[in-house]
Design brief:
Helix content is 8%, strand content 49%. By secondary structure, it is mainly β. The chain has a four-stranded antiparallel sheet with strand order 1-2-3-4, with no helix packed on it. A four-stranded antiparallel sheet has the order 5-6-7-8, with no helix packed on it. Strands 9-10-11-12 form a four-stranded antiparallel sheet, with no helix packed on it.
Length: 212
């Protein structure tokens, strides 16, 4: 229809290193990074890994032809974001309750850690706006996972505004927090001006907020 955008599949990319893909960031026409929450080779091991805060996540890089691991020992890989200049990738460590800044080599695609910022919640998806990173967080991971099994037990929602400098997270400020009454298990937040939209795939809704 006129004025309505649409997406058309162009193909499928598969690989044995895509064991528990959580998020993706594109850095070139055929180049991208994917975070794995856990890396177990079978479903049972992956389930067990999800509930233990160990360094079992990773990030893999697709160079246009094949995947290879560029970061290992990531504590619960979740959201990813890439800075506008392509020089840094920010990774959310869900069970590690932190954001990790990674310097990116454009030629090889290699990543090396340059900084880390602890959060009072497990970070989920990331939305980058200039030097501001909007981060959805889960204060209690067991409550969040429990909410996914049954909507009666509402999981809390948090949104943080994180300031970057040189691609490295410097400070975090909570701009929204709720026990789950308004929206439960929030996984993503995005802002423009004073408007903040919060989304939850488990709650099936968007919350439209005005920031003070």
């Amino acid at each position: 229809k006129d004025g309505v955008s649409s997406l058309a599949p162009q193909g499928t990319i598969e690989g044995g290193l895509l064991r528990d893909p959580q998020d993706i960031v594109i850095v070139g026409q055929n180049n991208f990074y994917v975070s794995n929450g856990v890396t177990g080779r079978n479903a049972l091991v992956r389930v067990l890994q999800r509930y233990v805060s160990r360094l079992w996540g990773d990030i893999v890089y697709f160079n246009g032809m094949s995947f290879r691991e560029v970061v290992n020992g990531l504590s619960g890989g979740s959201g990813l974001a890439v800075t506008a200049d392509g020089g840094h990738v920010i990774a959310a460590a869900l069970t590690g309750r932190s954001l990790i800044s990674l310097n990116r080599e454009s030629f090889t695609g290699n990543l090396s850690q340059t900084g880390q910022l602890a959060l009072p919640a497990g970070p989920d998806r990331l939305t980058l706006e200039g030097n501001t990173l909007w981060v959805a967080g889960h204060a209690n991971l067991f409550s969040w996972r429990g909410f996914g099994q049954g909507p009666a037990a509402r999981a809390s929602s948090q949104i943080f505004r994180v300031q970057l400098s040189g691609g490295v997270p410097q400070s975090a400020e909570q701009v929204y927090g709720n026990d789950g009454t308004e929206i439960a298990g929030a996984a993503v937040g995005a802002a423009t001006g004073k408007r903040l939209l919060i989304g939850s795939p488990l709650d099936g809704k968007l919350l439209d907020c005005t920031m003070q």
